[in-house]
Design a protein that fits this description.
10 helices, 67% helix, 271 residues, two-stranded antiparallel sheet
Length: 271
């Protein structure tokens, strides 16, 4: 299939011209396609394919933990490069996909609710990691944060944005949460799996809303880096206090998602 492409916010019959408005200044990429959901699902799997290969490779090689983490980071970094290549091959620029300085942070409460999430995680799980493994986790966190934002908040939202910004945000967050259900095969307890699914959906929702408001992927990349680094260094994520912390984080994200939803750019009206 040919990769469809169009840039939302350019003068056309569907986008009102409001000089100085957030939608005009941010101008986010949109693919012109008759099958946005097919593309969105394909991109969801595409963004996790090399990650899955990396997990399988490290398990079959029986590498020690730091070596396995660095190897996994290499596979995820390669996935991020593939995503960047797709962005480069389509018409919108990387800036229009979200690689630019964020704007209008005041409309996001200066990201304070998002910053609270890793603090709650540390407070309810504690940290236990060696310096060598922490460095390996840092490399993996950089790769994962960049990869997921490229594929899910960059490419996937561009594929769905032709349906409208709000439907794209909801659809993208649902697919992002669904991809995390693979933890079922890792033996996660049902309560943890359910909370993690709700948490992942809300993370996808909040980060997509932030992209729509600020026009930038950098916030999601930075937050993903910090959160994943803390989560992988946690002592016991299945303990009662950890599950309670996950529930609190989910509630905080839900409230933040509602706040951000009310501050999304107004839907475009036909001329």
């Amino acid at each position: 299939m040919r990769i469809p492409q169009r840039l939302v916010g350019t003068p056309d019959e569907t986008t009102p011209q409001r000089p100085g408005g957030a939608a005009t200044r941010n101008r986010l990429a949109t693919w012109d396609t008759k099958h946005p959901w097919l593309w969105a699902i394909a991109l969801a799997f595409g963004g996790t394919l090399l990650t899955a290969f990396g997990v399988g490779f490290t398990q079959t090689r029986q590498l020690d933990q730091p070596a396995a983490t660095y190897t996994q980071a290499g596979f995820v970094a390669l996935s991020a490069l593939v995503g960047l290549l797709i962005m480069w091959r389509t018409r919108p620029t990387l800036a229009q996909y979200g690689f630019r300085r964020p704007r209008e942070l005041d409309r996001t409460l200066w990201l304070l609710p998002l910053a609270v999430i890793p603090v709650i995680l540390v407070a309810t799980t504690g940290l236990r990691v060696t310096p060598a493994q922490a460095l390996a986790y840092l490399a993996l966190a950089v790769a994962v944060g960049t990869n997921e934002e490229i594929w899910f908040r960059g490419l996937q939202l561009a594929a769905l944005r032709g349906l409208g910004e709000r439907p794209a945000i909801i659809g993208g967050s649902a697919l992002f949460g669904a991809m995390h259900l693979t933890n079922f095969f890792a033996g996660s307890p049902p309560l943890h799996l359910g909370l993690q699914f709700a948490f992942a959906c809300l993370v996808g929702l909040v980060l997509a809303e932030i992209v729509a408001i600020t026009g930038s992927l950098w916030i999601g990349i930075a937050w993903h880096l910090v959160y994943d680094l803390v989560a992988w260094s946690a002592v016991d994520t299945y303990a009662p206090t950890a599950l309670a912390g996950l529930a609190v984080m989910t509630v905080v994200l839900a409230g933040y998602a509602v706040w951000l939803w009310r501050r999304l750019p107004a839907p475009a009206r036909p001329a």
